[in-house]
Amino acid sequence: MRHALHRGEAEEAGDELRVRGHGGPFVLRIVETWCDRATSCVAIWVYLQTCGFNVHRKIFVFVINPQRANASSRTFFREECRLKEPLSAARRKEFEDFAAAIADGARSMSLPRFRRPVDVSLKGDASPVTEVDRGVEAMLRDRIEAAWPMHGVLGEEFGAEHTDAEYVWSIDPIDGTRSFISGWPLWGTLIALLRDGRPVLGVLDMPALNERWIGHVGVATTMNGEACRTRDCTSIAEATLYTTTPDMFTPDEWARFDRTSRAAYARRFGGDCYGYGMLASGYIDAVVESNLMPYDYLAIAPVVQAAGGVITDWEGRPLGLHSGSRVVAAATPQLHAALIASLASD
């Protein structure tokens, strides 16, 4: 299908949009979509590929008004952006090797303290924190600063530094501190690398289980070095759906989650970050959660996406440094769309 633009034209071809004019020709590749229910518009996030450059951000918004399904209702808007070279294979491997190395360092500090006496205190939000949380994060920050002094860092225990940098590391030293202090093995370390506010690399490490997922945009997710993939569940009725605890929802959110999860084949509770690893490996089909902070999900996003899944906020928007507290992750785009629709307010 061809579409007239203000200065040129665009032709749809599968998952590509071939544009002439507007400084082209170039090709837009559709990689993510989200639906704004308030305006009844669908926005498509794309990679712009031209002259050997990629842009990992929204360059064009392709708006469809469902009240007018004819071609004339489709409009393109252009955003200003700065073209950047894509990560080379060598640089991608350098980042991945570094993330794996510091995850090894975190594991070597946390695992010997697991199921041993540790000092526990309460933070301002009444959540527990241990000396191990703080020690691991301090080590991770030191190693990141030594290796990448121009990069920013966001961490659970010591806050944010230089998060306006092109590259920012997000770290959660022990995701599931309550599990850690309870002797329950479903706690993990989360490490993410963001570029321009979007996660491009994620490490989900489960020290007590000796399991590690690594997800990198454009490269298949691995679990302990072996490629893994989400399974092909497309409907809520067939889905096994997880969340960590009912306590993470407000009353309104719980009503929506309860309605959605009761329609599933099975709903289960518990797991913290581990549920997302099980999703990436094809053992469960969805995770729906709330009351999260960015460091809780930024590492998880590339792991799920590079395994073939979809992960967004409850409104279907891609996750980034400034996203909110609610997350829905699904094995397939069809299941994700069904969950978004079911979780919507009445």
From TrEMBL:
Instruction: Quote the record's binding site residues for Mg(2+).
Output: E156, D172, I174, D175, D296
Principal EC category? hydrolase
Q: Which GO terms describe its molecular function?
A: histidinol-phosphatase activity; metal ion binding
> For this chain's UniProt record, which GO biological process terms are given?
L-histidine biosynthetic process
Q: Which cofactor does it need?
A: Mg(2+)
Q: What InterPro entries does this protein map onto?
A: His_9_proposed, Inositol_monoP_metal-BS, Inositol_monoP_superfamily, Inositol_monophosphatase-like
> Catalytic activity annotated for this protein?
L-histidinol phosphate + H2O = L-histidinol + phosphate
Pathway per its UniProt entry is: Amino-acid biosynthesis; L-histidine biosynthesis; L-histidine from 5-phospho-alpha-D-ribose 1-diphosphate: step 8/9
Entry-linked Pfam families: Inositol_P
Q: Which domain of life is it from?
A: Bacteria
What residue intervals traverse the membrane? none
Q: What is its EC number?
A: 3.1.3.15
* Keyword vocabulary terms for this entry: Amino-acid biosynthesis, Histidine biosynthesis, Hydrolase, Magnesium, Metal-binding
Q: Which PROSITE patterns match?
A: IMP_1
Q: Which family does it belong to?
A: Belongs to the inositol monophosphatase superfamily.
Q: Which PANTHER family match?
A: 3'(2'),5'-BISPHOSPHATE NUCLEOTIDASE, PHOSPHATASE
The entry's protein name is: Histidinol-phosphatase
Originating organism: Luteibacter anthropi
Source organism lineage?
Answer: Bacteria, Pseudomonadati, Pseudomonadota, Gammaproteobacteria, Lysobacterales
